[in-house]
Structure formats: structure tokens, C-alpha cells
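S., here's the first fold you wanted:
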Amino acid sequence: MNPIVEQVRNGFKSTILHNVAFVRWYSYPTKDNGNGVLVENRDATPTIKAELLRLTHEQSSVPSNSPSPVGLGTSFSMFAELTYDSVITEGITFVFNGEGWRTGPVDQLKTQGMTYGKRTPLTKTVLSADKNITACSFGTEDAIITGTSISQVVEAGTDLSSLELVIEHNGVMFSPQGAQDFSDGPVTFTVYAEDLSTKDYIVTVTEEV
């Protein structure tokens, strides 16, 4: 159950809900943009980071003397309350319960000059759930994609113990990366969507008979 606090300020009634949340987001390595400034390298494979924080929802009603009161929901604000050592910064889009939230400026919360936490406003963001392998190949030979099953035939004598397929997809990334061992049977590849949902593909590679 979410802790609820009701306040009345200047004739407005506010309902504040606090919800502890475990959030995840993609973290990209940085690169020099050519002007000595480090920026995200969106061409690189990201890692997934996670953090526990507290979401604060605040809804306010119109003044009680309003001729047409519309109740709670007239205005809506969402904030993330962070620990003092949080690695979350401005511009991160994290996922909670399948929804995306983008962070704004991160302010430090202090008492007697000591930082005890941080706070950032959030903006809801629509994230894509696309996570399909659209093409797969080795050399000049294209694989056959049937649902989430992929079959690839390679020339006889090909070393199946260290084979790197070229995979095209419409997600954010896939794993595992690099050469894989197909000599003992199929390998499972996972495609990650922008909303951090995943889809598994079973890839089988065999030699020509």
C-alpha cells in the first residue's frame, strides 16, 4: 500500500503518494564529440543499470470556492526522490512497470550543509516495445526466420564452435554478442526493446550435407 499524505495549502487540497520503485535504464559509454565534450555513444552496446528510489505523485484540486470544482487530477506532478549517492543524472529515461520516465535537473537536498538526498522532476515518455530480429546471416547466406526460430545453413567444414552471425533487429540491443559455439546445438539470442522488455530467439546452425 502506498503511503498517502493529504495537505491543504492556499485553498487547494493536495494528495501526495509515495511509492518505492526499482527502476532500470540503458547506460551508454561516452565518446568525445570532437570538441572535447563527452557525449553518449549511441552506436555502442549499452549496459543495463538499476536503482531503488522513491516516486512521489502529487495531485491537487482546485480551490474549494471554485464555481466548477473538478476534483483531484486538475494538476499532476511526478518526482523521483534519490539517495545521496544515486548515479541517476539529468536526461536518463528509466523504466518502471513498463512505463518510461525521463529525468529533469537533479537537485541536491541538504540539511546543515550536508547532502542527504536528491530530487528530480519526471516526464512520462513513450517507449517502443519493438524487439524483433529482422535478418540474420553468415557470409552471403541468409538465415530462415520462422517466428522465434532461426535456422542457418553454412558450408561443410565451417567451424561451428566459433561462429559470429550478422544479426539485424529493431530493438536496442541483443545478447550474446560476438562469436558463439553452435557445435553442441542451438543458441538462444535475446533482443531488448526500448521499454526493456525482451524476446528470445532460438538459433540453429548446421552444415551443408
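And the second, which I think is the more interesting of the pair:
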Amino acid sequence: MGVPAAHGSLQLFPVFGEVAADRDYVLLDEAVADRTLTFAEKEPGGAVARVVTTNHGGRPALLPAGAVLAGARTNRMIAASLLIPPDASALIPVISIEPGRWFFQAGRGFLVPGRMGPVSLRANVCGQAAHSLEAGELAIDQLAVWQEIERLQTAHNTDSATDDALALYAARGPEFDQFSEKLRPEPGQVGMIAAVEGQIVSFEGFDRPETLTKMYAPLVASLALEAMVRQGQRRATPDEAAQFLSSLTGNLCPAPLPGIGQHWLLKGEGVVGGALIGKAGVVHAAAFRAT
């Protein structure tokens, strides 16, 4: 773990570790830009919590948990990290982040706007998933997610005709540039521990520095949304960050999810998390302070 950087009430501790030999997958935005990865509603009629993705390319595609899919009948957030095999389709778990819309708008397809769901929303979904698996079935309460979006809109004093979580980013747009200028990844960095007002809120880690670098700006923006409404200047200590890392133990439950690799959800004391494990080790792991 390295020296933290900070802007406003947000503080990021860089995390370094072993690096995978090579990246044997393409990232979501890369695959969509190359038109080798597509998304569509589950027909007929659509399903709020599921969409169909097809990987037309020759390499697996990494869909990180929390990434936003915009368009179709309602904007969604990917519920868990997935590796979609080449030349394959899968029905993937998603969460609606736009409760006021269930109709096509400006086309039937999805776009990838380069945003992650707000960190509190991701923590909400991860916690629900971990708790539900303890009861024997993976399930997310969509209403609870929408209530968290309502809380965020109130905190940010924003409004949207369809209560769209993406409107939070539009309303605070110029402020994100300040965070991006102050907070940048370091060479060799594969993860980060985030604190707001001195309280550790999350950990994010990938198998390679280049993956973290590509995901860094969307992740920082998702954390900045929390920091913008919590202005205290207390700083977390390196010991507190290390303690959070060491707390990432507890009940591990295998998750029945599509794609390549193994999926695990964590429910520990004061922490929830999830990890996608590929043939060479962890591809993506995320953990959040339980609320």
C-alpha cells in the first residue's frame, strides 16, 4: 500500500500487488467500441433484472460490477463482475437505476456511457446479494435500490423526470474534473482503498495495472459523488486502511452467475464484497463498508 492522495473529503490509498502475466480479456468499453460486444433486452417484453449480452469477439469480455448500461427500456447497472466467453451469449444480472422509465427512448439498444454506479448504490447491491446467498438464493430488492437513488438525489438536490441515477453525474459535471486532476493512478497500481471524511468506504482491485488505469476515472467519479455531500476533512490513517484490507474475511459464498471463472460473495463483520476469479487468480474484487 502506498501514500494516499486526497481531494476534498475523498482520500485514496494506492494498492500494489502481484500482476497477471498478460491480460487475456477485453474491457467492456473496448469491446463495445469495437462492436464485438452487444446488449439487448430479454424479449418478449423485457426483464428489469436481466439483459442479454453477446460477445462476437475472439477473447473474453470483462463486464465490471457497477458499470452502467444506458438506454433500452431503462438504464441499468451490472450487478456482478462477469467474463463473457468468445462467440457466446449470456443472460446477465442487472439493476435498474432509472425507476421512472420502462419504455424505449432514442432506440432499442444500450450505450456504455463510461460511468459506474455511485459507491453507495454498489454497496447496497453487493450487501443484498451477499445476504440473500446466505439464505440460499441470489436476489436483489429493486425497490431498496430505488430508495437509495432517491436518497442520493435528495442529498445532491438534483431532479430527473425519470429519477435517473445518471442525472447525478450530469448535475455535478464540472466538479468531477477537479477530482480527476488531483487523483491519478500510480505506476504499477492494481487497486485502491477509498475513504470519505476519514471513514473507509471501499476497496477495488484488478489483476493488472492497465485495467485499473482504464477504470480509474469512472471509479473516482463514483466515489466523488459521496465526497461532494460529505465535507468533513478528517483523514483515515494507513493503519485504518490496512485494517479494512485485513477485514476482508468472513463467510464466502459461491454465486451462481454466468460466464467464465468462479464468482464469490463475501459477508464479513462490517464489510461486504465480491470477487471474480479467473484461471490465473483474481480478475476483479470489490468490497464495501456494510451499512
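Why I say that: The chain has a mean pLDDT of 91. The chain has one domain: 5-289.

Talk tomorrow,
H.
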